[in-house]
TrEMBL record:
It comes from Panthera tigris altaica (Siberian tiger). GO terms for cellular component: mitochondrion. Residues 24-133 form the DUF4460 domain. PANTHER family: T-CELL ACTIVATION INHIBITOR, MITOCHONDRIAL. This is T cell activation inhibitor, mitochondrial. Coiled coil: none annotated. Residues 188-490 form the DUF4461 domain. InterPro entries: DUF4460, DUF4461, TCAIM.
Length: 496
């Protein structure tokens, strides 16, 4: 009865994937990474330095994708659950064609898709198609395919192909759409997710405890030895990675202790590049060798001098703008070196000197502003500070600040009140659930955190006892056992 269905099924699959897909060999892990290079180039967090929230979303989604790809290569991978991912995709030559969802003025767009594939090749093709990226380069990775045009592979069809359920009933094949439909019909709830993932989180956290103690010991020893204010990490690296970085710094301290003591009183941040940050933190690039770190510590006195000149420049700008305070907010602004930030301030200061704005002295005291290079019009942030473009028209800037000054003061007052409430709720939640650690990602606002904590306190969640809980925008168990839940988690039973 169904003997004719297999050829038809093959024909339909050829409409979805390139014509060579069915006769191609499986990809290796290294080949899959190579095939996804256009995708990584379009979503890599380093290209979203001036957009912290989008950068964070891509970082988290890449971590989850990495886990998915690793699990695909393990025995029993056919039982993988559907994984929903969101990426902000930059506009590139490959994905800037007509007919696509328009990019924002910032040059990127959000792409959401659900992975439910059973091998690396189909996964790679699905990801590239979902992001409207070419798949032509993949054919060169396969030695068993013939070279034919791949025009039909550029995009997934708008109308998905779906078999009659009787086919799966009689053949015994599993309907690939069934789980996806169930995912779309059912919303993940906090209780159900914790039921499914709580034991895994407890196991990972327990396994990481010895390394966590080692990390604390290394951090304390180095902080005392070098008389540092703090040691931090810009990225969400795992505990083992952080310990390795501290061991590396410790070995350098044994070799050049007097040089490293130049950092006395500073905060050291492990990040992507070496230098001094806009706020005066010592940045150690994790890909740099000891020689580069040593040169940085040797140059710290000159950096301290530049830092003093920068602070003087901020005061001069403040004086010209009626006493408004110039600040740099790490959580909201792109990561800039001290030199880059000084250059930005200098350009803005020279523009102000050429176009003197008649602000009354100290009339704007108590207000704050941050300087941006990627904006063209001033704006008022919900937290109460002004976002000022470095190339802003001084005349328009004066009118904007004067008309928004009172609203800015109201926003700042509301922010301070909200912060007090947020801290109280964090403390109450930590105590009620006996959490080992309770924190949020920078992209989660105080309003969102307050709402989340209020609803958490209404629940009975025994699985949370002793856990390290992070409020985020997604569900995930991190490699060291930290549990991430979205701030707007759903309550109750999942309903079809």
């Amino acid at each position: 009865m169904f003997c004719h269905l297999r050829p038809v099924r093959r024909l339909c699959l050829e409409k979805i994937f390139p014509h060579w897909f069915l006769s191609s060999r499986a990809l290796s892990g290294a080949e899959a990474v190579n095939a996804l290079r256009p995708f990584y180039f379009a979503v890599h967090p380093d290209f979203f330095g001036q957009h912290p929230r989008e950068r964070e979303v891509n970082e988290n989604s890449l971590k989850r994708l990495s886990v998915y790809l690793e699990n695909l290569q393990k025995p029993g991978s056919k039982s993988l659950k559907p994984t929903q991912l969101t990426f902000y995709v930059r506009e590139t030559e490959q994905n800037s064609s007509e007919g696509q969802e328009p990019f924002s003025t910032s040059g990127f767009r959000a792409v959401k898709f659900t992975l439910h594939t059973r091998d690396l090749l189909s996964t790679v093709l699905y990801i590239l198609n979902s992001c409207s990226l070419s798949v032509e380069h993949i054919q060169s990775l396969n030695t068993n395919v013939c070279s034919q045009p791949l025009k039909e592979a550029k995009r997934m069809p708008d109308r998905p192909i779906k078999w009659d359920k009787s086919y799966y009933y009689f053949t015994g094949f599993k309907d690939p759409h069934e789980d996806l439909e169930q995912v779309s019909r059912m919303e993940t709830t906090l209780t159900s997710w914790l039921d499914n993932n709580g034991k895994s989180a407890v196991r990972k956290l327990k396994n990481s405890l010895p390394l966590r103690k080692e990390l604390d010991r290394l951090k304390d020893d180095l902080s005392n030895q070098l008389q540092l204010s703090d040691i931090r990490w810009q990225r969400g690296w795992g505990i083992a990675h952080r310990c390795s970085q501290l061991h590396s710094l410790g070995r350098l301290a044994q070799q050049n202790l007097e040089t490293l003591k130049n950092a006395k009183g500073c905060t050291i941040i492990f990040t992507d590049r070496s230098g001094m940050s806009a706020v005066g933190h010592v940045m150690l690039g994790t890909m740099d060798v000891h020689h580069h770190w040593t040169k940085l510590f040797e140059r710290l006195p000159s950096y301290f001098d530049l830092r003093r000149r920068l602070m003087l420049l901020e005061d001069q700008i403040s004086y010209l703008l009626g006493g408004i305070q110039v600040v740099y907010i790490e959580e909201l602004q792109p990561v800039l070196t001290l030199e880059e930030y000084y250059s930005l301030l200098d350009v803005f200061y020279n523009r102000l000197l050429k176009n003197r704005i008649p602000f009354h002295p100290r009339s704007l005291r108590g207000l704050k502003m941050i300087l941006n290079s990627d904006r063209y019009a001033p704006s008022l942030h919900e937290l109460g500070h002004f976002n000022i473009p470095s190339l802003c028209d001084p005349t328009k800037l004066q009118w904007f600040i004067l008309t928004k000054a009172q609203q800015a003061r109201d926003n700042m007052k509301r922010k301070e009140e909200l912060k007090v409430i947020e801290n109280e709720l964090i403390e109450a939640s930590t105590k009620k659930f006996s959490l080992g650690k309770f924190y949020k990602e920078p992209s989660v606002s105080s309003i969102q955190m307050v709402d989340c904590c209020k609803r958490l306190l209404e629940q009975s969640l025994p699985y949370l006892r002793g856990m390290h809980l992070c409020i985020s925008h997604f569900y995930s168990v991190m490699q060291d056992g930290d549990v991430c839940i979205p701030w707007n988690w759903k309550d109750g039973e999942a309903v079809k």
